[in-house]
From TrEMBL:
Gene: GLOD4
Keywords: Mitochondrion, Phosphoprotein, Repeat
Family: Belongs to the glyoxalase I family.
Alphabetical list of Pfam families matching this protein: GLOD4_C, GLOD4_N
Primary location group: mitochondrion
GO cellular component: mitochondrion
Domain of life, source organism: Eukaryota
Protein name in UniProt: Glyoxalase domain-containing protein 4
Localization terms from the record: Mitochondrion
Subunit structure: Interacts with NUDT9.
Classification lineage: Eukaryota, Metazoa, Chordata, Craniata, Vertebrata
Residue ranges of domain VOC in the record: 24-149, 156-277
């Protein structure tokens, strides 16, 4: 479902009309070193579904898999279709065993009593950090916060939390330039909650002391907008002297729709992907064979065995 929400926002640079309803939060990209354990976490602990799985022989033109040129795979996992659920994109680079974590990604919060129950049953480590809220980690050290409750909306994924070094500077970027609505702001706790619509996953910005370190495990958050908005978004960032990591480019997926993307970076270097919505809806259709494709790829991947026979460790990202 889409809502048309037009807002007139004025800053010292002038006034703009923001049509937020045409933009939506899509997914967060994680680099994973162990596909088997990662799939177990998302499927068996969180209770997500494999929505689609794709294999690539060479690196992505928009660095979707990070700064790597070799063979890699992409697995989309979520609680439901990508049209109306915020999901995770799991990128696996063959030959890379782990990635050093920074302090940039602070966690994903979701509401699912079933996930809490699953974790307990599987003896997956949980730590209660607030009443009814449990911290756990996906393989690789990525933090998740599980609320022991039913989701207040159709999508259990509530928010993604990213660290920022200057909250006001980040708010100016995400709200004034990218058009996000500020739902909450707490100066004392140095946090803010933003989003494009009430029924979408939110972005939480949490101020920290010092600089934001992305290390090798850095991720990327993705949003969609109408294809026609992409050139204007790129032009806006150029006029405002903001960083563009990848100018407007077309990305091909074998046998599927070609999408156009622009990759940006916020003041702290968080990577942001904006993709044309129309083609992305075609690309992101759920593949009923997705789970089997992932299982087959994992079974065919003998890299762990090869490295073990050579008495070597996989490279670190």
């Amino acid at each position: 479902m889409r809502y048309l929400c037009v807002e007139r926002r004025c800053t010292r640079d002038g006034c703009v009309l923001l049509v937020m309803a045409t933009r939506r939060a899509l997914h967060f990209v994680f680099k994973v070193g162990n596909r088997f354990q990662t799939a177990r976490f998302y499927r068996d602990v969180l209770g997500m579904k494999i929505l689609r799985h794709e294999e690539f022989e060479e690196g992505c033109k928009a660095a979707c898999n990070g700064p790597y040129d070799g063979k890699w795979s992409k697995t989309m996992v979520g609680f439901g279709p990508e049209d109306d659920h915020f999901v995770a994109e799991l990128t696996y680079n063959y030959g890379i065993g782990d990635y050093k974590l920074g302090n940039d990604f602070m966690g994903i919060t979701l509401a699912s009593s079933q996930a809490v129950s699953n974790a307990r049953k599987l003896e997956w480590p949980l730590r209660e950090v607030a009443e009814g809220v449990f911290e756990t980690e996906a393989p690789g050290g990525y933090k998740f916060y599980l609320q022991n409750s039913s989701p207040p909306q159709s999508d259990p994924v509530l928010k993604v939390t990213l660290a920022v070094s200057d909250l006001q500077k980040s708010l100016n970027y995400w709200s004034n330039l990218l058009g996000m609505k500020i739902y909450e702001k707490d100066e004392e706790k140095q946090r803010a909650l933003l989003g494009y619509a009430d029924n979408q996953c939110k972005l939480e910005l949490q101020g920290i002391q010092g600089t934001v370190d992305h290390a090798a495990a850095f991720g990327r958050i993705a949003f969609s907008c109408p294809k026609k908005e992409l050139p204007d978004l790129e032009d806006l960032m150029k006029r405002k002297n903001q960083k563009i990591l990848t100018p407007l480019v077309s990305l091909d997926t074998p046998g599927k729709a070609t999408v156009q993307v622009v990759i940006l970076a916020d003041p702290d270097g968080h990577e942001i992907c904006f993709v044309g919505d129309e083609a992305f809806r075609e690309l992101s259709k759920m593949d009923p064979k997705g789970s089997k494709l992932l299982d087959d790829a994992m079974a065919a991947d003998k890299s762990d065995e090869w490295f073990a026979k050579q008495n070597k460790l996989k490279a670190s990202g």
